[in-house]
């Protein structure tokens, strides 16, 4: 497989594509589409079509996975177009109508990458409508004003609707330069706006991948080898034939990078229930190889052994941290760990494929449809142009659908039968065959002088690498070190040394919402708290003393602009809103943590108040989150994402873990893969900084500081957890 | 294959299905009512919740042979046009993220309000505890429940 995906590279490549796309593609295509012949329409850009009925369609290229791009993206277009929001219709942009990379959805990048492009598209359409109005009125464009899908002649006060200008505007030249609004004049951006498809969701009309039906379709489930690199010896489907609706079984070959498929036998039936019933009676013999006795417990022992040595990959070096550590008298040396995690999207993996000798059609949810389409074409030996991909809504992404193992499986099954096939994973398949967030361990060392000034900081991150999983053993960019574990460590320390070591494990790994930022921010934000405590300093004030006087800079390796003052600001905002400096009730304790989510250009903090009920037994009284992600497009969407991110991270801090025994995942449902339930949810508030900086991303920013803020609160209460989920250290919450 | 007559959203349907096929798959695959969602099939998530004679039931656990003449209500039948007070409250509070769990949440609240006119916080917690939302919309679900309770008791 030639196509490689690297989270960091993806972001850079996508940025470049995003910035250069716009005007080169602006071609008026008025009245060209068949449905537009009768009525008149004007499509000055692939993402935007205006009909003379007044309907303005925005085709959203980024995938909607619950993060709200189907609202924020049209809002940006509508803002510059001065369109009435009521006229906006939102559609999923058909795959193939955009440039490569335009559909990719991950890393909280959608708004951040597309902001300029979307504004220009809206502004260009508006300029053409204004020029059409000016020609009609024999006046100049500057004498025209726009608002709510109308142009007004500032002199005569005449008005005309956009819909009436559509046919004329389509004939005009596309302006090369358009003036964008000053953010100060935004009227829609910054206004809380409901999800564009909220009515469909609330009435059951929204169609997710799992709801799609294709004529002649059959259904499949797969019995997979429980061990990733196992092989199929033989299977016997004679009992399946007794199940009504059963059609046949076919094998699914295993595969290595980029998508690791377990060897499997697909059970095909004319309905999903029959397929599930037939699978129960299918007999399969597997060759599990020699790698079938490993466990997560053994893995953590290997992690610990590795952590005391030198990192395999040196990541960031400033000064001489090991020497400074050795020479110091005040020092700390601690270890933090966190487990494998599953995504657990509410809509389990599923996909539809129809394959003929030389063509293929796909239906379903994909966060990176280019990667999936190209790889599947190659796998089937079919020309890329002969693969038609149909994208759908997704019942949750969280990075799970960046991977497309489920789509590849569907394609491999469909290749063997002459009907479209819908593959569905049941919840056990979903939890046992995930692309797991890597298990990880961090050895953290720091030292300070007699005045309490930090002198040395060392961070050795030991984990099971994602890059080695998706790119194969020859992977470049193996270390997963964003989140304060590289040159982006936000605290000012003269001697810093960070590194990464990979320890192999036979389990598929992948990106789970905020992956490496979460993984690294926990030890960074806990260690700084431990140092403050050791120095008997107030932990918030201690952080601020290291952040507030540090000017913004470009991080050395990763080349992100980082402003420690913006971290200080969100910390202060969270502290103020939770009442950090007010007297605390007896047995109430607080913890805080802040961070820079580098590639989302966002800064986030959480403050958590707990009540200690007994040693290691507590209640979460309140959680306050503060975020600064530049200009906020949709405050309602931002709050929803920060709430959701906080809940996702609370699950990770308190209860979620994937364990492996005999190389098999132990957990198999939401009964044992625990996530937050409604009744466990503590009160939560979200606050954000009003800012004029360009917008950043938000989908992942609510996660990284939850676990460290909670651990810091528990430490303040007398006992510091260093292992997630904290229940592993005997903590109990009510 | 046996034939079953079902009353769903005040309409009569006929389904040819295996006696043990769960109502969930009958609704989704045979009757084309895909608003009811599959999340786990083992009663661990609540995504498949429908009302059976006004009681919220996990449709993945109810076999079609046991539906009898019960009145089944799914999200598609809660109101004609999305104007049921629960749907309106959900819209006002802007609850959904991905939206996948919300049909189950809403139908469960419909059952909650059939059982209690003015449920207490404990009753709300007890009834909602089994409806998972991986997107984490719990704070808003609670707010919307309070809003609808206020609305219907006005
Ligand atoms: S699908 Fe029925 S409870 Fe999960
Ligand atoms: S809104 Fe996505 S699972 Fe609830």
From TrEMBL, chain A:
Gene Ontology MF terms in the entry: oxidoreductase activity
InterPro entries: Ald_Oxase/Xan_DH_a/b, AldOxase/xan_DH_MoCoBD1, AldOxase/xan_DH_MoCoBD2, AldOxase/xan_DH_Mopterin-bd_sf, N-heterocyclic_Hydroxylase, OxRdtase_Mopterin-bd_su_IorB, TAT_signal
Domain of life: Bacteria
Name of a matching Pfam family: MoCoBD_2
Domain Aldehyde oxidase/xanthine dehydrogenase a/b hammerhead: residue ranges: 203-290
SUPFAM superfamilies with a match to the protein in the record: Molybdenum cofactor-binding domain
PANTHER family: ALDEHYDE DEHYDROGENASE, BLR6219 PROTEIN
UniProt-recorded name of the protein: Molybdopterin-dependent oxidoreductase
Source organism per UniProt: Limnovirga soli
Automatic annotation (TrEMBL), chain B:
InterPro entries: 2Fe-2S-bd, 2Fe-2S-bd_dom_sf, 2Fe-2S_ferredoxin-like_sf, 2Fe-2S_ferredoxin-type, 2Fe2S_fd_BS, Beta-grasp_dom_sf, Diverse_Oxidoreductases
Keyword Iron in annotation: yes
Residues covered by the 2Fe-2S ferredoxin-type domain: 2-78
Matching CDD domains: fer2
Annotated keywords: 2Fe-2S, Iron, Iron-sulfur, Metal-binding, Oxidoreductase
GO MF, one annotated term: 2 iron, 2 sulfur cluster binding
Protein name listed in UniProt: 2Fe-2S iron-sulfur cluster binding domain-containing protein
């Amino acid at each position: 497989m030639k196509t490689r995906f690297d989270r960091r590279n993806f972001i850079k490549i996508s940025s470049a594509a995003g910035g250069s796309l716009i005007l080169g593609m602006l071609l008026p295509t008025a009245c060209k589409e068949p449905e537009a012949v009768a009525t008149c329409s004007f499509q000055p850009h692939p993402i935007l079509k205006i009909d003379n009925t007044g309907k303005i369609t925005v085709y959203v290229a980024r995938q909607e996975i619950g993060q709200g791009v189907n609202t924020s993206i049209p809002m940006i277009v509508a803002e510059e177009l001065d369109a009435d929001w009521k006229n906006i219709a939102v559609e999923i942009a058909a795959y193939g109508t955009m440039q490569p990379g335009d559909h990719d959805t991950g890393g909280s990048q959608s708004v951040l990458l597309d902001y300029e492009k979307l504004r220009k598209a809206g502004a260009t359409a508006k300029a053409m409508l204004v020029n059409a109005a000016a020609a009609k009125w024999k006046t100049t464009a500057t004498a025209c004003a726009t608002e709510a899908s109308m142009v007004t002649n500032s002199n005569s006060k005449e008005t005309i609707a956009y819909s009436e200008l559509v046919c004329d505007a389509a004939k005009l030249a596309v302006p090369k330069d358009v003036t964008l609004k000053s953010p100060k004049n935004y009227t829609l951006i910054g206004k809380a706006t409901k999800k564009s498809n909220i009515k469909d969701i609330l009435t059951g009309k929204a169609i997710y991948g799992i709801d799609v039906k294709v004529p002649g379709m059959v259904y499949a489930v797969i019995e997979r080898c429980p061990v990733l690199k196992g092989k199929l010896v033989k299977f016997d489907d004679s009992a399946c034939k007794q199940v009504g609706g059963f059609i046949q079984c076919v094998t699914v070959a295993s595969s290595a990078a980029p998508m690791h498929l377990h060897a499997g036998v697909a059970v095909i039936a004319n309905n999903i229930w029959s397929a599930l019933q037939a699978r129960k009676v299918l007999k399969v013999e597997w060759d599990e190889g020699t790698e079938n006795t490993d466990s997560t417990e053994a893995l953590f022992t290997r992690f610990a052994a590795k952590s005391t040595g030198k990192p395999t990959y040196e990541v960031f070096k400033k000064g001489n941290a090991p020497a400074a550590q050795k020479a110091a008298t005040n020092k700390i040396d601690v270890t933090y760990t966190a487990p494998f995690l599953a995504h657990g999207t509410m809509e389990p993996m599923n996909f539809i494929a129809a394959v003929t000798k030389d063509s293929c059609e796909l239906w379903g949810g994909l966060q990176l449809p280019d990667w999936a389409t190209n790889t599947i074409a190659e796998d089937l030996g079919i020309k890329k142009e002969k693969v038609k991909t149909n994208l759908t809504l997704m019942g949750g992404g969280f990075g799970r659908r960046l991977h497309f193992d489920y789509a590849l499986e569907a394609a491999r099954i469909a290749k063997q039968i002459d009907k479209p096939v819908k593959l569905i994973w049941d919840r056990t398949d979903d939890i046992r065959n995930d692309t797991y967030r890597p298990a990880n361990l961090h050895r953290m060392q720091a030292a300070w002088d007699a005045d309490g000034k930090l002198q040395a900081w060392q961070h050795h991150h030991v984990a099971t690498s994602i890059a080695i999983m998706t790119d194969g053993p020859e992977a470049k960019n193996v270390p997963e070190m964003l989140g304060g574990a590289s040159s982006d460590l936000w605290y000012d320390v003269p001697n810093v040394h960070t590194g990464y070591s990979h320890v192999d494990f036979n389990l598929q790994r992948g990106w789970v919402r905020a992956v490496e930022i979460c993984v690294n921010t926990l030890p960074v934000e806990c260690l700084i708290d431990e140092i403050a405590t050791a120095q008997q300093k107030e932990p918030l004030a201690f952080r601020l003393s290291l952040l507030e006087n540090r000017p913004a800079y470009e991080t050395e390796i990763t080349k992100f602009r980082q402003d420690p003052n913006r971290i200080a600001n969100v910390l202060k905002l969270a502290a103020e809103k939770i009442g950090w400096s007010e007297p605390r009730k007896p047995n109430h304790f607080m913890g805080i943590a802040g961070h820079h989510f580098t590639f989302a250009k966002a800064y986030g903090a959480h403050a958590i108040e707990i009540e200690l009920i007994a040693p290691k037994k507590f209640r979460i009284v309140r959680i306050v989150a503060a975020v600064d992600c530049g200009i906020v497009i949709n405050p309602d969407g931002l709050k929803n994402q920060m709430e959701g991110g906080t809940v996702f991270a609370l699950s990770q801090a308190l209860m979620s873990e994937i364990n492996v025994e005999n190389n098999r995942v132990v957990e198999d449902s939401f009964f044992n893969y625990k996530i937050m339930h409604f009744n466990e949810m503590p009160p939560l508030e979200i606050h954000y900084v009003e800012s004029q900086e360009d917008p950043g991303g938000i989908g992942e920013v609510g996660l990284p500081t939850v676990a460290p803020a909670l651990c810091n609160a528990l430490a303040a209460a007398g006992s510091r957890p260093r292992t997630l989920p904290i229940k592993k250290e005997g903590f109990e919450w009510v | 294959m046996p034939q079953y007559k079902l009353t769903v959203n005040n309409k009569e349907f006929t389904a040819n299905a295996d006696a043990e096929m769960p109502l969930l798959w009958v609704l989704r695959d045979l009757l084309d009512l895909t608003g009811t969602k599959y999340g786990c099939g083992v009663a661990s998530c609540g995504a498949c919740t429908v009302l059976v004679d006004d009681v919220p039931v996990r449709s993945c656990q109810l076999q079609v042979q046991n539906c009898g003449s019960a009145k089944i209500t799914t999200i598609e039948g809660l109101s004609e046009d999305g104007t049921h007070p629960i749907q309106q409250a959900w819209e006002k509070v802007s609850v959904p993220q991905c939206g996948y769990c919300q049909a189950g949440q809403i139908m469960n609240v419909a059952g909650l309000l059939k059982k209690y006119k003015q449920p207490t916080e404990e009753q709300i917690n007890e009834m909602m505890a089994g409806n998972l939302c991986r997107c984490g919309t719990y704070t808003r679900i609670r707010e919307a429940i309070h809003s609808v309770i206020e609305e219907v008791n006005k």
